[in-house]
Specification:
The protein is an alpha/beta fold and 488 residues long. The chain has 15 helices and 20 strands. The strands form 5 sheets. The chain has a 6-stranded parallel sheet with strand order 3-2-4-5-6-7, sandwiched between helices. It has a 5-stranded mixed β-barrel with strand order 16-17-18-20-19. The longest helix is centred in the C-terminal third of the chain and has 24 residues. It is globular and about 70 Å long. The two termini are 46 Å apart.
């Protein structure tokens, strides 16, 4: 998959998760005066997870989700600040929401507008100044307080801005999870980052690194599995830096957490994202060899192929160290599919530096990669560095890089044609009788299969590889078809 976005499960360009329908459960008992909440999610999977948790917190207050913004009593933009384009989209959406709010007001209907996520954290009160229709601005560490803050707004408190990093544990304060039944779910295990790559806003918007305790996570995972989830993707800005408190009080590594989760009956697949090369420890590499439920897929951003760019980015590893790490991972799990993030046009990047990024992509033969034009972010060291690269050069480099990535992706997909692979079916496909699932290597697969296979892993013989997905037939069907073809 080639996209100007990052992390697993998306082909996003800044704001793909425009779902407006974060899940909420009301057990069919929505109060008579039902209020409707529309949530638009920008950016990474951590925001997708947060939107879901917000929706659950609001469900306890009688809010049901809607995909129709026009009927929303509360509209939330859960925002991303990682690149300028993502942040600016929020303001154009706020303009549309203002008009909607005015229109509904003429019909006697109240509409509250809230901005949450990383733009809320980074811009705070500036959002209310630029967009006075906004009632509430809430940073990523405070969204568990949404119900209380909304009550204060309704009580006449005026526009509220909540961007502190409170001491209380957000996850403990949130209601227990009741996600819609789905085969696959996210679980945030770690938040924040203190690595301070010079291009990145995360340490400023999400705060310092924090890991959730193992017991809280195994309990949340069990509840997910009880509701039909069969695959869990562990999320964190630096997920492999996870060091949550274990049941014995000692710090537990991500490998330890994966082992604890793998013991849950009914959970079939575990993934994690996003990792930093410096935190790829021996025990995590060994888990890829030993832990059957840990899928052979790893998203490991390298960002740039030239050592001088890596140093200016404060990545604290060289290209050779990255290659050596990949060799160790492949030794432990030879079939592992690798994915990465690459930034083009970082300040000072020359044509020769860029050529080294291309060379590394070709040498490693990634299965997936996400590529970005460097976007200067206010307050980050790289934004004021000398040698800012012209937009035109960045665009041209991105195009060239994406062609290489696309070729690699096509090669990787084609290699599976004719193979039988276990697919976890997640949902119905667009065509009648078709299901969609994923291979262990995270490729999308379409196959004709009965709905009873949703949530099950079944062998599929891959017949064709398309640009972004594979299609095939159930191995059981192939056997039956062959049997029918044999004259008796
Ligand atoms: N923690 C991960 C790591 O260390 O690689 C990355 C998490 S970051 C939220 C996701 C990706 O966004 C990064 O890997 C990087 O490629 C991209 N990114 C971050 N800041 C950027 C910027 N200022 N301009 C362009 N891309 C950026
Ligand atoms: Fe951002 Fe990742 Fe660097 Fe942390 S390690 S500052 S999240 S790019």
């Amino acid at each position: 998959m080639v996209a100007s976005g990052s992390d697993l499960l998306d082909d996003r360009d800044e704001a793909v998760f425009e779902d407006g329908a974060a899940t909420a459960e009301t057990d069919g008992l929505a109060p008579a005066a039902t209020k409707r909440v529309f949530i638009k999610t920008f950016g990474c999977q951590m925001n997708v997870y947060d939107s879901e948790r917000m929706s659950e917190a609001l469900a306890a207050q009688g809010y049901v989700p809607t995909e129709e913004v026009a009927e929303a009593d509360l509209a939330i933009l859960n925002t991303c600040h990682i690149r300028e384009k993502a942040a600016e989209k929020v303001y154009s959406d706020l303009g549309r929401l203002r008009d909607l709010k005015q229109g509904r007001s003429k019909d006697g209907k109240e509409t509250l507008i809230a901005v949450t996520g990383c733009v809320a954290q980074a811009e705070g009160r500036e959002i209310v100044r630029r967009a006075p229709a906004v009632d509430l601005v809430v940073g990523p560490q405070s969204y568990h307080r949404l119900p209380e803050l909304l009550a204060r707004v309704r009580g006449g408190a005026g526009a509220l801005v909540e961007t502190e990093f409170p001491d209380e544990d957000k996850f403990r304060a949130l209601p227990q999870r009741k996600p819609q039944a789905a085969a696959s779910a996210f679980l945030t295990v770690q938040e924040g980052c203190d690595k301070f790559c010079t291009f990145c806003v995360v340490p400023y918007t999400r705060g310092m690194e924090f890991s959730r305790p193992v017991t809280a996570l195994t309990e949340e995972a069990r509840r997910l599995v009880d509701r039909g989830v069969r695959e869990i993707t562990l999320l964190g800005q630096n997920v492999n830096g996870y060091h949550g408190e274990g049941p014995d009080g000692a710090a537990t590594s991500l490998a330890g957490l994966i082992r604890a989760l793998a013991a849950i009956d009914g959970l079939k697949r575990i993934r994690y994202t996003t990792s930093h090369p410096r935190d790829m420890t021996d025990d995590l590499i060994a888990a890829h060899r030993d832990e059957e439920k840990l899928m052979p897929f790893l998203h490991l951003p390298f960002q740039a192929g030239a050592d001088r760019v890596l140093a200016a980015m404060n990545r604290k590893h060289t290209a050779d160290e990255y290659k050596a790490l990949i060799a160790r991972i492949r030794e432990a799990r030879p079939d592992i599919a690798l994915s990465t993030d690459i930034i083009v046009g970082f300040p000072g990047e020359t044509d020769e530096d860029f050529a080294q990024s291309i060379a590394l992509v070709e040498e490693i033969a990634f299965a997936h990669a996400f590529s970005f034009k460097y976007s200067p972010r206010p307050g980050t060291p790289a934004s004021t560095m000398d040698g800012q690269v012209p937009e035109e050069v960045k665009r041209e480099r991105l195009e060239r890089l994406q062609q290489v990535i696309e070729r690699g992706f096509a090669r990787f997909n084609k290699a599976l044609v004719g193979e039988t692979v276990p697919v976890l079916f997640e949902k119905a496909g667009r065509h009648e009788g078709q299901l969609v699932g994923r291979t262990p290597y995270w490729q999308l697969v379409h196959a004709d299969a009965p709905a009873s296979l949703i949530g099950e892993v079944a062998d599929v013989v891959i017949e064709t590889a398309k640009a972004n997905s594979l299609s095939g037939v159930l191995a059981a069907d192939t056997v039956a078809r062959q049997a029918r073809a044999v004259p008796r």
